Write a sequence for this structure.
């Protein structure tokens, strides 16, 4: 009996140690992520002009972006990331900004990186990859609904429907397709992620 107890103690000690390590790592993650900034330091600036308990209306000025057609794989993100990592004619490294957006135009789905405010059409580095396009999103008003969790298509479509229904109820005209905006790195726990669905709207003050 004594030998059996000794065996179980030897067996349980590594398990208890593993549980302690696991608990420590989980606690560390829960501490770090709520106190960690999102994936970048600069966010596209906007002014909130109207707010309800479900959504808000924001006014954005012109925004310079790099974009590429998103074909449903990781290549679109990789191409854009390579561009800001120095894959451009001047080999300049560009700071990551937020959000990363996905939007449909002319039956194509585009992924977009917003460029830091120091860049203009005149001084922005030209991409080495011909698939990447530099363009300007014209100033305008956007209805936005925020949500946490995974930035999956299912989650995006769910909140797009909620936002669209609320805008219809409030008699606010929608312009174009819904826009998916993500703000956090993929290493951020879903509970702490900031995701948004946006619609360009015809807003009357």
């Amino acid at each position: 009996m004594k030998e059996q107890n000794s065996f179980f103690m030897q067996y349980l000690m590594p398990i208890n140690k593993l549980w302690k390590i696991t608990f420590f790592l989980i606690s560390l993650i829960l501490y770090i992520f709520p106190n960690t900034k999102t994936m970048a330091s600069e966010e596209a600036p906007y002014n909130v002009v109207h707010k309800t308990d479900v959504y808000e209306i924001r006014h954005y000025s012109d925004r310079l972006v790099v974009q590429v057609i998103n074909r449903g794989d990781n290549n679109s993100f990789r191409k854009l990331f390579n561009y800001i990592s120095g894959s451009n004619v001047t080999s300049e490294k560009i700071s990551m900004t937020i959000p990363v957006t996905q939007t449909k135009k002319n039956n194509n789905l585009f992924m977009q990186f917003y460029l830091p405010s120091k860049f203009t059409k005149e001084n922005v580095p030209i991409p080495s990859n011909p698939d990447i396009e530099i363009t300007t999103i014209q100033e305008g008003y956007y209805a936005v609904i925020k949500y946490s969790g995974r930035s999956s298509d299912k989650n995006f479509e769910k909140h797009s429907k909620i936002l669209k229904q609320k805008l219809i109820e409030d008699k606010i005209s929608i312009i174009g397709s819904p826009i998916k905006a993500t703000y956090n790195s993929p290493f951020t726990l879903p509970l702490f992620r900031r995701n948004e669905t946006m619609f360009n709207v015809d807003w009357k003050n």
